[in-house]
Specification:
The protein is of the alpha/beta class. Helices cover 42% and strands 18% of the residues. The protein contains 6 helices and 7 strands. The chain has helices spanning 2-21, 47-51, 66-82, 105-114, 132-137, 165-182, and strands at residues 36-38, 44-46, 55-61, 94-100, 121-123, 144-148, 154-158. The strands form 2 sheets. A 5-stranded mixed β-sheet has the order 5-4-3-6-7. The termini are far apart. 32% of the residues are buried.
Length: 183
């Protein structure tokens, strides 16, 4: 029995560092790779067009992902809180672009409706883990999110999208600090 427990502990201990050491190849300040796929209505959407003048939260998720679905209510609250905020340097404010790793369109579309993901920017190539955006962004687990500034550069990387709120607040509050310095 001790050998079994020791073996389980050892295998767990060896697997944890591999997960903990994983790092997306993208760094803060890197240009966000283009994402250009169809939305559920089969209309093409491009990150570069959505991002032009906006802060965009890229949310990688899937309909079959339990942690993603449990996180979606918090993501919806984040969107509601910041979608109409004035953001310094971002004339068009804030939005979310959801990138699905689904392979079944019907499940993807149903999850968007069921979870009330109200923002208009949802894309997928229905490629699952082999989806080009997942490869480009080094996504090895979901949920995972990236905050992209209006200049197209990555501002932050997060396990859960709502973790971006702190960085969004910093951007919003940076305007007030600049105005105080001028006075």
């Amino acid at each position: 029995m001790k050998k079994i427990i020791s073996g389980l502990f050892l295998s767990f201990a060896l697997s944890v560092p591999a997960i903990a050491q994983y790092e997306s190849p993208l760094k803060i300040g890197d240009a966000a790779p283009e994402i250009a796929f169809n939305n559920p209505e089969d209309k093409p959407l491009k990150l570069s067009e959505i991002n032009n003048g906006r802060v965009v939260l890229l949310d990688f998720w899937a309909s079959w992902c339990g942690p993603c679905r449990r996180a979606n209510p918090r993501l919806v609250e984040l969107y509601k809180k910041y979608k109409d905020q004035k953001i310094p340097g971002a004339k068009k404010g804030f939005t979310i672009m959801s990138v699905s790793l689904d392979q079944k369109k019907e499940a993807w579309v149903q999850a968007i409706a069921h979870d009330s993901l109200a923002w208009p920017y949802h894309v997928s190539d229905l490629g699952g883990w082999e989806a080009k955006p997942a490869q480009d962004y080094g996504v090895r687990y979901i949920p995972q999110a990236f905050l992209v500034g209006p200049d197209g550069k990555i501002i932050g990387k997060y396990q859960f999208a709502e973790e971006a709120a702190q960085d969004i607040e910093k951007i919003i509050n940076s305007k007030g600090k600049k105005e105080k310095k001028k006075a």
